[in-house]
């Protein structure tokens, strides 16, 4: 029997990366709009940095703050002060953030014991939450911000850890071929340089004592169902096959295209954004390339130079959002870019160091394409406006996302050295001109505009969230009716 919607309480626990917390918060907001009570758990500083919640949702959405525990000797002092997210630490110190994150299990257990929610929705990191849920007889759902293509490529839980992993993914080279369980033609694989870093990062042990793949395996195996930020209109073959491989409900929650908040509207009327948007207003429609690589990509000086020279050589108008590298001087950001870059591109482009209102920029009529890291959120934000895409992926599921989008004819990947992954200014220039102005790539631009029909269809994606909410209310009864099948 279906529960009264007011009785449904869901606890949501994301990993400490903004590329995870933000889409988890988007799902929380979408569920709260459907009058499902959501407790979203993170740390104080992260909650302060996340987008503000609409006041109308206050009765249904609680932001629950757990202070991040301090690491104890011998690990004490390994995390920088006030570090609560991956953006706050160098890549090599993320393992210590996982150690601190794992210490949240005690306050999490106490919270669950007090609240006894109907469901717990978990990210891929808090493997210990599965045991806590079992102790209190609370079903869990594993929510993936990675699309089904990446989940299917990595395989079911038995292939993520232990003997199964050693059998099917023994070496980095095993990631350069399509796995046996993908029973249709697919070109989605890792390149050699990607496979080396991904194999070590996914299956290798870290300071926390638990590999990323082992974390995911335990969460996926114990989950009642899988929820994925995707839709069958985007990747039906991968989605349907993943459900067969998992042998449990796999529920698309839609792509959750973002909405502009009142807080963001205020920010873009302030400087420097007022001047920047006036500059965008002066550009020709669909002429400007938006360049951004998210909060997690960390470039070397050589890579930034090659990017800059490639953008310059393209001759295209551009707006480049650049995160200040850890190695840059705190007071003189001009050292980040090649000497004379600013003067040579003056009037044709803007480089902004720091945060930017990406959704609002991509929504501007002058933006025609993006050069980016192929994170799913940025993909959704770009394709809902039919922008042409140039891909330069780096970590996690980004390379697999890029291969899927190339497979679908929705963009062009920057050429790189197969062995070391280096890219050149010529490669950047070529990719940009292909997606923006080359006649031979007109079909890519056409397909991108066609994809906007479902990437930007808010009614479509709202309906997937609504079906997911029905699953939360009715459990497996809803799945038995076939109403959430894809």
From TrEMBL:
GO terms for molecular function: glycosyltransferase activity. Keywords: Glycosyltransferase, Transferase. Signal peptide: none annotated. The keyword Glycosyltransferase applies. InterPro entries: UDP-glycosyltransf_plant, UDP_glucos_trans. The keyword Transferase applies. Belongs to the UDP-glycosyltransferase family. This is UDP-rhamnose:rhamnosyltransferase 1. It comes from Penstemon smallii.
């Amino acid at each position: 029997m279906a529960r009264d919607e007011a009785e449904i309480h869901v606890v949501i626990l994301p990993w400490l990366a903004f590329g995870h917390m933000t889409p988890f918060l988007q799902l929380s907001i979408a569920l709260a709009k459907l009058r499902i009570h959501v407790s979203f758990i993170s740390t104080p500083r992260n909650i302060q940095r996340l987008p503000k919640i609409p006041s109308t949702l206050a009765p249904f959405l609680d932001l629950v703050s757990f202070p991040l525990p301090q690491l104890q000797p011998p690990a004490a002092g390994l995390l920088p002060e006030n570090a609560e997210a991956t953006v706050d630490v160098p890549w090599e110190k993320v393992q210590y953030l996982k150690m601190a994150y794992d210490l949240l299990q005690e306050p999490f257990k106490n919270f669950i014991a007090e609240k006894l929610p109907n469901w717990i929705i978990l990210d891929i990191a808090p493997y210990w939450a599965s045991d806590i849920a079992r102790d209190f007889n609370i079903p869990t759902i594993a929510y993936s911000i990675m699309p089904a293509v990446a989940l299917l490529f990595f395989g079911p839980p038995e292939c993520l850890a232990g003997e199964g992993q050693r059998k099917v993914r023994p070496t980095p080279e095993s990631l350069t071929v399509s796995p046996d369980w993908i029973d249709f033609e697919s070109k989605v694989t890792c390149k050699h340089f990607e496979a080396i870093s991904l194999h070590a990062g996914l299956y290798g042990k870290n300071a926390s004592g638990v590999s990323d793949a082992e974390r995911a395996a335990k969460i996926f195996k114990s989950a009642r169902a899988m929820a994925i930020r995707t839709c069958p209109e985007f990747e039906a073959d991968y989605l349907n096959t993943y459900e067969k491989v998992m042998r449990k409900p796999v529920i698309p929650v839609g792509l959750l295209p973002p909405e502009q908040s009142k807080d963001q509207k205020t920010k873009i009327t302030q400087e420097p954004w007022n001047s920047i948007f006036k500059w965008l207003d002066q550009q020709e429609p669909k002429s400007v390339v938006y360049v951004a690589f998210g909060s997690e990509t960390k470039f070397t000086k050589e890579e930034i130079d090659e990017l800059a020279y490639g953008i310059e050589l393209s001759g295209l108008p551009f707006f480049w959002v650049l995160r200040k590298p850890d190695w840059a001087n705190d007071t003189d950001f001009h050292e980040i870019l090649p000497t004379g870059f600013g003067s040579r591109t003056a009037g044709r482009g803007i480089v902004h160091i720091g945060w930017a209102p990406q959704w609002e920029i991509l929504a501007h009529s002058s933006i025609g394409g993006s050069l980016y890291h192929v994170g799913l959120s940025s993909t959704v934000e770009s394709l809902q406006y039919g922008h042409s895409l140039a891909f330069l992926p780096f970590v996690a599921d980004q390379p697999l996302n890029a291969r899927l989008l190339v497979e679908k004819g929705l963009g062009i990947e920057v050429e790189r050295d197969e062995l070391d992954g280096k890219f050149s200014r010529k490669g950047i220039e070529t990719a940009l001109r292909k997606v923006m102005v080359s006649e031979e790539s007109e079909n890519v631009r056409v397909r991108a505009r066609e994809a906007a029909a479902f990437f930007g269809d808010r009614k479509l994606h709202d309906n997937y969230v609504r079906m997911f909410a029905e699953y939360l209310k009715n459990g497996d009864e809803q799945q038995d009716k076939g109403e959430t099948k894809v």
